[in-house]
Amino acid sequence: MAMALATGGSRGIGKATALQLGREGYTVVVNYRENHAAAEAVVAEIISKGGRAFCIQGDISNEAQVNGLFATLDHQEESLTALVNNAGVLFSQGTIEQLSAARINAVLATNVTGYFLCCREAVKHMSYQHGGQGGAIVNVSSAAARLGAAGEYLDYAASKGAVDTLTVGLSLEVAAQGIRVNGVRPGFIYTDMHASGGEPGRVDRVGPSLPMQRGGRPEEVAEAIAWLLSSKASYVTGSIIDMAGGK
What we know:
Layout: E1 2-6, H1 12-23, E2 27-32, H2 36-48, E3 52-57, H3 63-73, E4 79-85, H4 101-126, E5 135-140, H5 144-147, H6 154-174, E6 179-186, H7 193-196, H8 202-206, H9 218-229, E7 240-243
Parallel strand pairs: 1-2, 1-4, 2-3, 4-5, 5-6, 6-7
Helix pairs in contact: 1-2, 1-9, 3-4, 4-6
């Protein structure tokens, strides 16, 4: 059977994706940074519906913890064939005049360096040259990478621009090793992350102004992620799907 790792899998898009992958037959590894109870609840829900899952704590901005996370996967019966890079951080809304080096670096450490580290270890597990059977990676970006998030989260938007570049570049680097790398760019999705930015009702505010006149649901993003990981997308790599209601 196939094993899928979803980073930041205890809430939001990560949780919806973990549940979707559980329904599709993967053994789901729910990674979380702090909230063990929330991660265990996701695992329990997957198992209650006949799936297989377990959770592993790990801060993806910490290289030693990333190494430990993937080392744990070495002891599992299944091989890792899918990675969803989803864990991310977002801080309070503000202009560039309010950004400190500490804040910028904290955003980049998780949203960029963390993605690189997880991709690096996943490639070691999946690539033909390391004895793997191939696989697929989906990087969760954001519409902010295209829109810039002016006056709100320039640092977050820039980090997601880096994720898009990583997605395209890595897809070319590992295509011949049996690994497909794609991305999704959600925007205006109902998740807890907006509260981290200081505006829990942001999607309700912005939603009516979108071409589709509503915000999106995490489950809608999860469906796209699951498709990109599946054999139905077997000839798709280096692609990024925009999911922002037409914005």
